Model the fold of this input.
Amino acid sequence: MTKIGATAEKEGQASTGDEDAELDRQLEQGLELFRFIEGKDVFEAFYKKDLARRLLMARSASQDAERSMLAKLKVECGTTFTHNLEQMFKDQDISRDEMITYKQHLTNTSKTTMDLQVSVLSAAAWPTYPDVTVKLPAEVAKHLEKYDRHYKHKHNGRKLTWKHSLAHSVVKAQFNKGTKELLVSAFQAIVLVLFNDVSDNAPISYTTILEATNLPDAELIRTLQSLACAKFRVLTKHPKGREVNPTDTFTVNLAFTDAKFRIKINQIQLKETKEENAETHERVYQDRQYETQAAIVRIMKSRKTMGHQQLVAEVIEQTKKRGAVELGEIKKNIESTYLFCHIGLFVQRVRLT
Done:
């Protein structure tokens, strides 16, 4: 190795080391702020939603950084806190292996022009996503049914629920100045392929698109706005304007052009509503009650006899890592748990007599 080459390699190693050190420093700064948060379970709920979005939409800047942050949270709060977050990464690893097996199966049994990628998510580990009814293109629906059969044959007793609102795809589109690859959501792709069936770039009405896709009005309006009224206008709305109305019609914007060959068309995002925010807080509150009750039962089983104040103090100690539970809630849970245990004993005695 020449002296210049050796120097360059050392500089490269030093640069990588500096980047890792800087990343670790930034994560530690975030962790310092995290330590001041009382409702760590509330933090976890919203962190999980954001992490899920980054993983599913491939928006994470660095998988290593994500895992490093999880490792730090695990040390700080324990395995219970990070169990679901770690399961999200495991699900993605398992899904990649599943797809390799499925594609080998396809190679041996049939040919397809569609490149399908499926992520199978554990319902308990990931956030809850709504089921949106939509009519899929025939070829896509056929491919999904084929994967569904393959998966169920391999994993007997499991059921797949398809979350089309999370899906995204690459669509090849032909314009006057050449072909482009459009990175779009599943809903955007479903709308775009409808224009394959019209001749001479004939317009398609809003009501026709609504019937053909079976999308809810709110979803369809968002989708059409992103395709015809946003930065990249691959569709043309008639009449022009930013608002989509039931009387509008749409055509392909054949004059569309852009310097890039592959273009990402973002779906117009809905802001998190107050109702969704309140629902997340309510779910966290319910989880706190279950965890508090579980802690009370564990303590009562292990100690047998214990003073009320000691029990309260022990419950606070066992639940504080997840977030502060109000003293009144702890006392209420102690009373309900105590009453439940006595009812259980009473039922047991009745059965024995």
In short: The CA atoms of residues 154 and 248 lie 47 Å apart. Confidence is low (pLDDT under 50) at residues 343-353.
